[in-house]
Amino acid sequence: MTDVHHPANGVALGVIGLGAMGAPMARHLARGHGRVHITARRPRPDLVADGAVQHADAAALAAVADVVLLMLPDLPEVDEVLAGGLLAGDRPLLVIIGSTSSAPGVRALAERLDRESGGRVRVVDAPVSGGEDGAIAGTLSIMMGGTEEDCALAGRVLEPCGTPVRLGPLGAGQVAKACNQLVVAATIAALGEATVLADRSGIDLRTLWDLLGGGYAASRLLDTRKEKLITGDDAPSGMAKYLLKDLRSGAEVAAATGTHAALLPALLAEFEELVDAGLGERDMAVTRRFVAEREPG
């Protein structure tokens, strides 16, 4: 294959993990940089039409890529892709981990890759916030951790997807995402509980949230979940079980920093109970249903 480097940015970019977040991000990257290399279990003619080049597997992608963005659920899936051929190339490779994962886990992975590749493979962690809506709109907040040089390159690559910002050394992106998810979990838990209180008190929910949305209770989460909270529709978009995973990462950060958090343990207990109740596959707005159905105890 010829002309794998796009002159606008000087690197060949790959994306693996073309789910609800990864596919729209790959589309923005293809449009923004003129080309992006992808691999997936099934053909993606929609992305090819937007400038993506599809490869048969990770090894074929690694043969042409300088930078690869991994939009996968967590580090076990990242390890699977790495072992499945992504490390087969012989060129320097920057791996951008977009997964929301453990900060110590990301650091350990980067140390192993550096050791096993003789420094050929470098890592930046870059979890994102903004959900599927933000990925589609190209307005994600992208929280990066890594060396200044690697984050500068990752930032140039990821700019079509939103606002990439380096927050510190490797793992800093994951710490920032844990902080983000602490606020998200607290907010959606409060919104769900307040919705039940208002509903059982005979208050019209639409009137309530339209009014409170103009005051200090306003938030991006209320804007995006208001309709679900009002109607009780918790069909999955951002699944609640992922918040539990992220709160556990937050608890890991708290332990590592000697922080005796007050809210984090309560949220962790709530979302553990919610997932145990079989509601983890629902949208995070399921906090309304969780509170409404919860038994005394």
From TrEMBL:
<comment type="similarity">
    <text>Belongs to the HIBADH-related family.</text>
</comment>
<feature type="domain" description="3-hydroxyisobutyrate dehydrogenase-like NAD-binding">
    <location>
        <begin position="171"/>
        <end position="285"/>
    </location>
</feature>
<keyword id="KW-0520">NAD</keyword>
<dbReference type="GO" id="GO:0016054">
    <property type="term" value="P:organic acid catabolic process"/>
</dbReference>
<dbReference type="InterPro" id="IPR008927">
    <property type="entry name" value="6-PGluconate_DH-like_C_sf"/>
</dbReference>
<dbReference type="Pfam" id="PF14833">
    <property type="entry name" value="NAD_binding_11"/>
</dbReference>
<dbReference type="InterPro" id="IPR015815">
    <property type="entry name" value="HIBADH-related"/>
</dbReference>
<keyword id="KW-0560">Oxidoreductase</keyword>
<feature type="domain" description="6-phosphogluconate dehydrogenase NADP-binding">
    <location>
        <begin position="13"/>
        <end position="164"/>
    </location>
</feature>
<dbReference type="InterPro" id="IPR029154">
    <property type="entry name" value="HIBADH-like_NADP-bd"/>
</dbReference>
<dbReference type="GO" id="GO:0016491">
    <property type="term" value="F:oxidoreductase activity"/>
</dbReference>
<dbReference type="InterPro" id="IPR006115">
    <property type="entry name" value="6PGDH_NADP-bd"/>
</dbReference>
<feature type="active site">
    <location>
        <position position="177"/>
    </location>
</feature>
<dbReference type="Pfam" id="PF03446">
    <property type="entry name" value="NAD_binding_2"/>
</dbReference>
<protein>
    <submittedName>
        <fullName>2-hydroxy-3-oxopropionate reductase</fullName>
    </submittedName>
</protein>
<dbReference type="GO" id="GO:0050661">
    <property type="term" value="F:NADP binding"/>
</dbReference>
<dbReference type="InterPro" id="IPR002204">
    <property type="entry name" value="3-OH-isobutyrate_DH-rel_CS"/>
</dbReference>
<dbReference type="InterPro" id="IPR013328">
    <property type="entry name" value="6PGD_dom2"/>
</dbReference>
<dbReference type="GO" id="GO:0051287">
    <property type="term" value="F:NAD binding"/>
</dbReference>
<dbReference type="InterPro" id="IPR036291">
    <property type="entry name" value="NAD(P)-bd_dom_sf"/>
</dbReference>
